Amino acid sequence: MSDIFTILTKYTGGLSQVFNFLPSGYLYLSTFLIVLVSIFLIFKGSFAWTTLLMMVGAYFGVIFALYLSKDFSTTSLPLYLILVIGAVAGAVLVKGLIHIALPGAIAFLVYLVGTAVYPNFVYDVIAGLLAFVIAYALYDRITAVLAAVIGALLMWFALYTAGMNDTVAQVIAATTFVLGLTLQYMEKTRYHRYSRFTY
To answer: Which of 101, 117, 164, 177 could form a disulfide with 152 if both were Cys (CB 3.0 to 4.6 A apart)?
Structure first.
């Protein structure tokens, strides 16, 4: 993981300079908000991943609804109801698309690796389909790890651009990453035990 931080350090140098031009109040506020988002991603995993994606989908749904409202200005529906419908439709659509697109991307990656290692079309397609099924079944666990990785990188970036020592920022981000995944695993284990005991 340190290699990832090293590579990102080269590309975030310019961004950190941009952050340094911000007034100290805005800098600390932006750092605080990014750290909050990173903590949400690390400790809430799949729920945070789904929530943020649905927020993005709702935003674009509202934009699309505003665009359509100009073409359908004769409709009797009030504008706020059109925006609510657009937000809900966008959130649901993005959630569904990502739930299919992520396993699909993993399946395609497995297929590409298969063609490079053992170029047999039938076997590679079967391996890709199996990867899709497994990734779809383990979607929550995959997104939990993915959200935690993104959250750790965001936390490192926020602390680093705020002026913290790079190594210290890496240690804090990595420690929070491990702690978040551990707590999520313990919570799910406790939930499954309770479910078996109840039913």
So the answer is: 177
